[in-house]
Amino acid sequence: MAQTQSGAEGMLSLPALLHRNATQFGTAPAYREKEFGIWQGWTWAETEKEIEALALGLINLGVNEGDFIAVIGRNRPHLYWSMVAAQSVGAIPVPLYQDAVAEETAYVLGHCGARFVIAGDQEQVDKVIEVQDQLHQFEHLIYLDPRGLRKYDHSHLHEYSHVQNQGRAARDEFIGELTARREKLTYDSTCVMLYTSGTTGKPKGVVLSNRNVIESAKNSAEFDHLTRNEDILSYLPMAWVGDFIFSVGQAYWCGFAVNCPESADTMITDLREIGPTYFFAPPRVFETQLTSVMIRMEDAGRLKKAMFHSFMEHARKVGPRILDGKPVNAWDRMKYALGNILVYGPLKDTLGFSRVRVGYTAGEAIGPEIFDFYRSLGINLKQLYGQTEATVFITVQPDGEVRADTVGVPAPDVEIRIADNGEIFYRSPGTFVEYYKNAESTASTKDPEGWVATGDAGFIEEGSGHLRIIDRAKDVGKMADGAMFAPKYVENKLKFYPDILEVVLFGNGRDRCVAFINIDLTAVGSWAERNNIAYASYQELAGHPKVLGAIQEHVEAVNRSVAQDEMLSGCQVHRFVVLHKELDADDGEMTRTRKVRRRIVEEKYADIIAALYDGSATVSTKTEVTYEDGRKGHISATLEIRDAAVQPVSPHRVAAE
Q: Distance of CA 239 to CAs 94, 165, 656, Å?
């Protein structure tokens, strides 16, 4: 396994890459941020000065080498700078999820022992102040946006710009110290610590070195031919490894521009204005955008709707082949070109994807229908498979070998092996150093030879060498008759429908499968408006007979599709219930990266699962919920349980061994 010992082209750290960028192409754009409706930008030379001023200010404030500096807030250039400034002074940046509740924030800050926190605004400052009595090492809080903070006690509270100004004023005093600390950084120095989403327990602190980040950024950039002319929109949580590698690792390696939206509410507008050339999103973003397209088409006139559906049908047939450079006859090419003028081009402009040269989705499996929709438009959307512990990249899809049913081939310098039980193992230059203060978990995940257990089950196809993921290893099971139970496969098929937001399938060890379904309030609410159906709440709409009827049609259509798969035909949904509330991270039902915590959902709604299996027509339930202000409450509901038609299972079906 190749690992560059001296560093990729001698660049041993993010500060070293920053200096190279500022020196070699200092006038090129490095960051843009939209504020008050106006885009403002910083070149690489200006960025280096901003980061140096903050780094000097941190030394002035007493930051020592080895200290942990937590960073919490939405995507902003200043918060990205703070992570590089932290490394410049020999400290370790720890980005947190901005929507984490106070309890989650307290756990991470306490676990890493952060002495310093850099927060985006008053909301994040309040969150830290609320839990500061639980934090024994915490000393100073730096805030970026001063609005609402004037009357706070400023004995340990510092405005970001003031810290920078103090750093500039003390430059002569501290520049020697800063230079010495930067020069001490090696390829094995810690670059960042990122916390896992905690699907099965408390989040773990994943320590990533400069080697992990820079080698992964270099290899992936070369794989997709990324240059410093790329534009990306950085809108995903800064605490997520995906955002760190795209918005920091690759951005610094390639020297391309990072664009930060004004807010989550303006993200789609800002996406259209920037028109990124390189775009990354989890499946939920692509699902949401497709839902909005379908809603708009339902509101369109008859002619426009007919034209859309006609050209999209043609696009699904030939679009991916044209994108991959495969042979397509002249008439089909001509019709596709016309569709590009009338439908595909305007639609890509609306979505903000008109300039996308490389697009990726990861984090969860994406439904094949959703994946094919975007590729049929001519958008080079690909899948990758990765983990925080791998510094993202385990497998990637080469251009021309993109398929919905695989996650590609091993990424550059990555080795993969499949254990006897089907679990996927890998090792690579991106393999994490350790779980912080958790030697036991480190040893159980990474063996002495560097092989990491992913917790996912899959197999490598003969001939193509592509990896196919079946599901999380712990979620794959067997039905009572020995057939394979793989919930994600069915869940993703159901989530293709715009009015279905989330699905949780149950059936392991049982004789049949049942499902929880969350409706998409935006899509179903739009349908209700068009049909003059009044509703007062999510709960009321979710239980409407016409909504239940539509969901039942979707379930039965998916059952017909699943029945065609010999291996998984036993996973058809026999009964389902549309839940009275959305699964929510604040209620512990999902992670901050929107992954379902299956065990918690199973325990919390055990009464509903029991009713699904005992033949009940309805079930009355009472559920604890968390309100936006953190208060707890309860909602009660009586839910209708629906039976769905299932298809006969092939007698030739092979039970999963």
A: 8, 27, 38
Answer for the pair 69, 86: CB distance below 8 angstroms, yes or no. Answer: yes
Least confident of 150-159, 238-247, 525-534, 588-597: 588-597
Listing DSSP states for 356-395 in one string gives -SEEEE-SSPPPHHHHHHHHHTT--EEEEEEEGGGTEEEE
34 neighbors 266 (Cβ within 8 angstroms): yes
136 backbone φψ class: left, alpha, beta (φ>0; ψ -120 to 50) = alpha
Query: Residue 38, exposed/middle/buried by CB under 10 A (0-12, 13-18, 19+)?
Result: exposed
SS3 (DSSP) at 412: coil
Per-residue pLDDT, 654: 43
How far, in Å, CA of 487 to CA of 513, rounded? 9
Q: pLDDT confidence of 3, banded at 50, 70, 90?
A: very low
pTM: 0.81
Please give the radius of gyration of the chain, using alpha carbons only, rounded to the nearest integer. Answer: 25
Provide mean pLDDT across the span 106-117. 96
Give me the long-range contacts of 595-602 (CB less than 8 A, separation at least 24): 595/197, 595/199, 595/363, 595/364, 596/502, 596/504, 597/199, 597/200, 598/199, 598/475, 598/487, 598/504, 599/200, 601/504, 601/516, 602/506
- Whether 580 and 543 have beta carbons less than 8 Å apart is answered as yes
pLDDT value, residue 1: 38
Residue 631: is it exposed, middle or buried by C-beta count within 10 angstroms (0-12/13-18/19+)? exposed
Q: Which residue from 301, 339, 277, 492 is spatially nearest to 405, judged by alpha carbons?
A: 492
What is d(CA 528, CA 470) in angstroms, rounded to the nearest whole number? 36
Kindly tell me if the per-residue pLDDT of 2 is higher than 70. Answer: no
Whole-angstrom distance, CA of residue 12 vs CA of residue 5: 10
pLDDT of residue 198: 67
Q: Under 8 Å CB-to-CB from 522, ≥6 apart: which residues?
A: 288, 291, 292, 295
Q: Kindly write down the DSSP assignment for every residue of 528-584, as one continuous string.
A: HHHTT---SSHHHHHT-HHHHHHHHHHHHHHHHHHTT-TTTGGG-EEEEEE-SS---
Residue 125 tokens, joined: 């400052």
d(CA 53, CA 332): 58
Pairing of strands 500-506, 513-519: antiparallel
What would the two tokens of residue 601 be? Answer: 């959902």
What is residue 650's predicted lDDT score, i.e. its pLDDT? Answer: 58
| Domains with residue ranges and CATH for the chain | 14-280 (3.40.50.12780), 281-396+407-420+452-472 (no CATH), 477-643 (3.30.300.30)
pLDDT digits (tens, 9 = 90+) for 277-313: 999 998 888 888 888 888 888 788 889 999 999 999 9
Between 492 and 500, the more confident residue is 500
Residues in the chain: 657
Instruction: Please give the mean pLDDT across all residues of the chain.
Output: 91
What is the per-residue pLDDT for 656?
Answer: 39
Q: How confident is the model at residue 344 (pLDDT cuts 50, 70, 90)?
A: very high
pLDDT of residue 6 exceeding 70:
no
DSSP 520: -
Q: What's the pLDDT at 5?
A: 43
**C-alpha pair distances (Å), 427 with each of 1, 414, 434:** 9, 6, 14
